[in-house]
Amino acid sequence: MKKINFSLCIITIVFLFIGFSKTYDATIQPKTQEDNKYYHENFNKENLKQLVMVNDELYYNTEKENAMPMKCGTMDGEITSMVNQDDIPNVNNQSNFGNGYVYQIGPQDGQILLNIDNKWMVFEKLQSNK
Fold first, then answer.
1. Maximum C-alpha span of the chain
2. Rounded to whole angstroms, what are the CA distances from 95 to 86, 88, 92, 105?
3. What are the residues whose beta carbons fall under 8 Å from the beta carbon of 125, sequence distance 6 or more?
4. Whole-angstrom distance, CA of residue 69 vs CA of residue 67
5. Sheet bearing 102-105, strands edge to edge
6. What is the pLDDT of residue 6?
7. Residues 32/91, Cβ–Cβ less than 8 Å
8. Nearest 5°: phi and psi at 114?
9. pTM, 2 dp
10. CA distance 107 to 104
11. Is 49 exposed, middle or buried (0-12, 13-18, 19+ CB in 10 A)?
12. Which residue blocks in the chain are alpha helix, DSSP H?
């Protein structure tokens, strides 16, 4: 009797984990695939080389170094996770080129500044017409 109860308990736990993982995939994955398809179709490959997501917005590297004075010495955040180079970041503070980069919200609307190799690089918000 104890073996049957133990087996039923294990089977229940396994089904719970399978159920939760499918629920998570169903809610997150389609949006990510849709976003990836949209951005790959509507922005050239150069824009997709270095992307970051900050405050639920995607930004691309303009490859321009910031020439304006920094607003302060306090950082607004840090890139803490990354996706593959050909993927689109889909959570805040994520990039497709690395992590550990600090950033500040830029002096102009739609910009953030990332410190990459001791240079403050300008990233601009990707405009979507979805």
1. 75
2. 11, 8, 9, 16
3. 57, 58, 59, 110, 111
4. 7
5. 77-78, 102-105, 111-116, 119-125, 57-65, 51-54, 94-95, 81-82
6. 62
7. no
8. -110, 135
9. 0.63
10. 9
11. middle
12. 2-42, 45-48
User: Average pLDDT per run of 10 along the chain, which is 130 residues long?
Assistant: 63 59 41 53 62 95 85 87 92 95 90 93 79
Sign of the C-alpha dihedral computed for residues 9, 14, 15 and 16 taken in this order = positive
Q: Are 103 and 94 in contact (CB under 8 A)?
A: no
Using the structure block, give the residue that is written with the tokens 């020439």: 67
In the block, tokens 């984990």 appear at 17
Token pair belonging to 30: 């389609």
Tell me how far CA of residue 39 lies from CA of 10, 28, 57, 69, 79, in angstroms: 43, 17, 13, 32, 20
Residue 58 β-bridge partners: 53
CA nearest neighbour of 88 among 129, 37, 25: 37
